[in-house]
Known about the structure:
- The chain is an alpha+beta fold.
- It has helices at residues 3-6, 32-36, 75-93, 107-115, 130-145; strands spanning 20-23, 44-49, 56-57, 63-64, 66-72, 118-123.
- The chain is built from 5 helices and 6 strands.
- β3 and β4 form a beta hairpin.
- The protein starts with a helix and ends in a 17-residue tail after the last helix.
Amino acid sequence: MKKYIKAFMPDFRPIQGSDVSFDLLDFQDKDFRNEFCLEEGESGIYIISATDGTKYTYPNGKTSPILYIGKSDNLIRRLRDEHYYKGLKRLLDDPDYGIAENIQISPLYQYMYYNGSHIDVFKCRGNQSSKNLESLFLNQFYQKYRALPVANGARSYEIEME
Length: 162
């Protein structure tokens, strides 16, 4: 388990760590499914962190390179189509994308562009739902840092009892 994830999730799959780990920029010339071992329709959560050494300071003074925790019921689609093609790639192609037209691209993509975009994926197992897994990670992050990650705009739903 990576140190920055273990900092707030010490007992979650401590030996194995994340199921898949890669830099989103590595996707530019690769087949997302085959290269990163993700199947269409797989659900889970993903953590996006800075790769350039940036650590974000949270209200209690603690720091973390984590900038976003998200969930998806189709990880390939979310990471490839939304975060890469609709977000990060627009800035890679044109760092001033939307400025002239006053189009404000999500701060998440700005952070990813300027600070890097390492992805750690935790797939759902058994009856686990992506919503509950995301809630667990966000709640634990909040407990440690007293805030959500810098690019998370809203708190997740509370964990549903299954």
